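User: Hi! Is it possible to get a structure for several chains at once, not just one? Here's what I have:
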Amino acid sequence: MTYRRRASPLHAARASVACLWCAALALAAIISWHPLVLAAVLLTALAAALAAGVGREVGRFTLLIGLPIAVLFTVINPLISREGLTVVARLGGVWPVPEFEVTAEAIAYGAVAGLRAMAIIACCALYFSAVDPDRVLRLFRRFGFRSALTATLATRLVGVLAADARRLADGQRCRPGAPASRLAIVRAVTAGALDRAGDVAAALEVRGYGGAAAPAGARVPWSRHDVAFALSAAAVAALAIGAQAGGLAGFDAYPRVELQGGAGAAAIAAALAIAGLLPFVDRRGIAR
Amino acid sequence: MTVLSLQGVSFRYPGTERPALRDVDLEIADGEFVVLCGQSAWGKSTLLRAACGLVPHFHGGRFEGRLVVGGLDTREHGPGDIAAVAGTLFQDPETQIVMGSVRAEIAFGLENRGWSAAAVARGVEEAALALGIAPLLDRSTTELSGGELQRVALAAALAGRPRLVLLDEPTSQLDPVAGDELVWLLRRLNEEWGTAIVLAEHRLERCLPAADRVVALVDGAVACDAPPAAFLEWAMANEPSLATPAARMFSLAGVSPLPPGVKAARAALRDRGIEVAAPAPAPAAPRRRRPKEAALSFERVWFERRGGRAVLRGIDLALRPGERVALMGRNGAGKSTLLRHANGLLQPTRGRVRAAGRVALLLQHPGDVIVADRVDGELDPETLRRAGLDHLADRHPRDLSGGERQRLALAIVTSGGDRPAAVCLDEPTRGMDRFHKAHLAETLRGYADDGIAVLVATHDPEFAVQVADRVVLMGEGELIADGDAHDVLAGGWYFATETARVCGALTPEEGAALILAEARR
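Assistant: Yes, the chains can be modeled jointly so their relative placement is included. Here is the combined structure:
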């Protein structure tokens, strides 16, 4: 999953604002347990990804990583949780597994936890696909120049080494006879990685990294998209925090499943989705 | 005014006895375009690394003498300081790109120097405009081709308007079109900005016409420092492997002075009343040839990427046993993809590939097939002896020179119980000097003499002529020409040897015979 520049309002927004917007959406998923709100966050992230031209990448990542986690939570929680009043099955009872009860509440809790994980993963995938890491780096360089740079370069080296690994795998497939031992390949990969790291380090040196000074900040006027996404992030965060504080979107799984808020929770979920997606309506000035 | 000055510079890498540089005295003035040449491991890269401060600050080792770049003594200033006066570009663009977008990449060096945001933005814009990469500024660096990446790396090196730019074989991974463009871009920047250029290159025919001076290194010492024409005279007398094909042609024909480029060669011939040949007719269109007993054949091979373009479009190509074929075309034409189909690394989405036996494939990076810690850990003594590597049996493969490593890798992929029906090589001459190219060509001819078909993807027309009796030209995944090397390479401009561009003859020997015949008429 890598950043690709696309003509979209989210890509056109400044990194700090785009970052905040993704964080606000993730925050809503982190602090809320109401399935309607979590579903709204998940759908908002996926719809935003579509509107930003990265729907395929974000959808795929969410399905590949998020869905198995959600299924795992849904399956595992009923097996380890001893809470809940509505017994739906009695399992075990055969040595060495003692008898235990599976409750509907534990299944519901696992499913909501899975939904929450999926929503957070979708927000992260959207961030990685639509927020320019170079601009984020520039943002953080003002506070911790070398740390931020080192982190970015390590990330860069991961890509270089991944390409090297693909090449090495192809090279090994070109060898006749029995494949080389795993140990020999590990040694070759390690030596290659060290060579590569040396090359990248030399490139950094000649680009002045050794004598690096903290870059000066720039004043860039706020665009319509900066303003729209900043307002959207504020609205999403306010809705999530307000709903939580006001008890409008609470969820209790034990001892019985209880959804608080009723129609209010549905309204919060709808408002959150609308607030999150509104900035995508304005598509003026999005290409670069 | 001197921008680079070396006085009695000698250098040894850590753990080695042999000096990489020996008592080098050299002065380069502002605005000069200097080409640095010499065989592999004769000190070109080390000299450039010394000039940018990597030697000794990054590599360590024993350094003697004095080296001053733009007024900065490298004994006191490291690469970080020197970066302000000298931009550096290495061979492999992939390891030089450190940021995610082109704009951030060009800005990186300027930000390291603490420039204001406005100055950085201006520097980025100017460098991008100068190198013609403004449309790429917001592209991700992972999406760029090799040629584009090299331009971006050059823009990053030039962004601070350094007084000196050091380039270590920057065209070795580029096709002839991109390589020529890069050299002429350097000449333009040299003329318009007054930037001094020091360019290390093996393919001198590409850069001599742009050069003011040529410095030849032999075993780490400066053996010649002269204008291009005088350098060629020296090379013919002392190091013929460094002479360009046109110079060798003139020398064989007894014509002097030796020409530094095609234009000078044509002018010299015209002055002597020798008619320069008209361009040869267009090469034959590829025709479907299916020999009865093909060693390797591609039959209507298509390779279509899922959700992407068709990289190969119905390729029909068959090689007879013992046939030597050069596959040429610009970067992205589909050469590497076709070779990967030969031994099954890739499967065609339509069509099929047939081989009369095993197909040995050597990819672009020979180190990728080598895994052992010692050379003799890879091959048995007899195979090593046949490959001429038995004297290196106890060495670590990473300590071998580029040419030796390639020989080892080639021996590995062709070894094993069954003799291969075909040997395929992908860009085997990248960064290789003329001497090692000739050796490789001889090895490949040896395979062909044993009845093994040889298919070589290359950007190097001189090497193609040395190694192949048939040349196939690819473009956009299709075969656009297929015929005898003379037919395909004599009439082109980019895909043609230097002597072909001068007089239509493929090799210096043929050219000299042609000139002598014309002169007698």
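Chain B has two domains: 2-240, 296-509. DSSP finds 20 helices and 19 strands in chain B.

User: Great, thank you!
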